[in-house]
Specification:
Shape of chain B: flat
Helix content of chain B: 40-55%
Helix content of chain A: 55-70%
Largest sheet of chain A: none
Radius of gyration of chain B: 18 Å
Structural class of chain B: mainly alpha
Oligomer: heterodimer
Largest sheet of chain B: none
Number of helices of chain B: 3
Order of helices and strands of chain B: HHHE
Number of helices of chain A: 8
Strand content of chain B: under 5%
Shape of chain A: globular
Structural class of chain A: mainly alpha
């Protein structure tokens, strides 16, 4: 009989480090993060890696920070770390070429690496898809644009002439649709 | 005005929504799960798919994330703080 390995999340549940509701909340958050992941990784990888790092002690929950918030932060940093590593690997290629070149380059200075093209492409595709999802919802598009530009809720309410209630209900609508669409994507 | 790159803008959007999802009541989260036909209260529910059930290729993909052999992982604990609301 095949011995199935327990997932890190299942391990954490068994140890009462999280509840089932916590796990579902983290699944929802992981699905959100997945909008900005490359195609060879998915939300389950982020989630399980976050739990793995918590369980092996390489990430420790700070005092006063709830477990779910802590693990959400770990997922974000795993995602950043992934892209940082990808950028470093890409930067090795021009460096290698420069080392192997017979002729001396003029300045001898390496140009700063351009923003990661793959990450940029994935972001553009995600934003196009988000735009399509909210095509008919002008309030949602305004709030998304405002969040994209880093505006505060008060600024957005002023700019787009929205009441606080409208703003809150629009933001709720946005997150529910993004999460729903994320959860609706084919499961691995 | 400096143009915002798509990855920075997307990051801001996701961070804002993550902040919301950290504080909304369980009812909203469970309502979303139920809309998709999940019954989190039921053992073996699809709600737990990918969480307590390993998915195909997961071990391989975790190696992609880690990039390094496990032995070279720095064990120094790193505190991860949530985004400020």
């Amino acid at each position: 009989m095949r011995n199935l390995r327990k997932t890190p999340a299942a391990e954490a549940l068994d140890r009462n480090l999280v509840t089932r509701n916590d796990l579902i909340r983290l699944k929802v958050i992981a699905r959100l993060h997945a909008w900005a992941l490359p195609p060879d990784l998915d939300w389950t990888d982020l989630l399980q890696e976050a739990f793995a790092r918590m369980l092996d002690g390489s990430r420790r929950q700070p005092d006063g920070v709830p477990m779910v918030a802590f693990l959400a932060g770990v997922m974000r940093s795993i995602r950043s770390e992934y892209w940082r590593n990808a950028r470093k690997e890409a930067a090795q290629i021009p460096k290698l070429r420069a080392e192997l070149e017979v002729l001396d380059s003029q300045g001898g200075e390496l140009v700063d690496p351009a923003p990661d093209p793959e990450r940029s492409l994935i972001a553009r595709e995600a934003l196009s898809e988000i735009e399509r999802l909210f095509e008919a919802d002008i309030q949602a598009r305004n709030v998304i644009a405002g969040l994209f530009e880093g505006h505060s809720p008060d600024e957005m309410c002023r700019t787009y002439n929205m009441s606080k209630t409208d703003y809150e209900s629009t933001r709720k609508r946005i997150r529910r649709i993004l999460v729903r669409e994320g959860l609706r994507s084919p499961q691995p | 005005m400096k143009a915002i790159s798509p990855e920075v803008g997307l990051e801001r959007l996701l961070l804002a929504l993550e902040t919301d999802l950290l504080v909304v009541a369980d009812e909203e989260i469970l309502a979303i799960a139920k809309e998709l036909g999940m019954n989190p209260a039921m053992k073996g529910s699809a709600a737990m798919f990918g969480i307590t059930t390993p998915t195909a290729g997961q071990v391989h993909r975790q190696r992609l994330i880690r990039k390094e052999p496990v032995s070279s992982f720095k064990r120094r604990p790193k505190e991860d703080t949530p985004p400020s609301t």
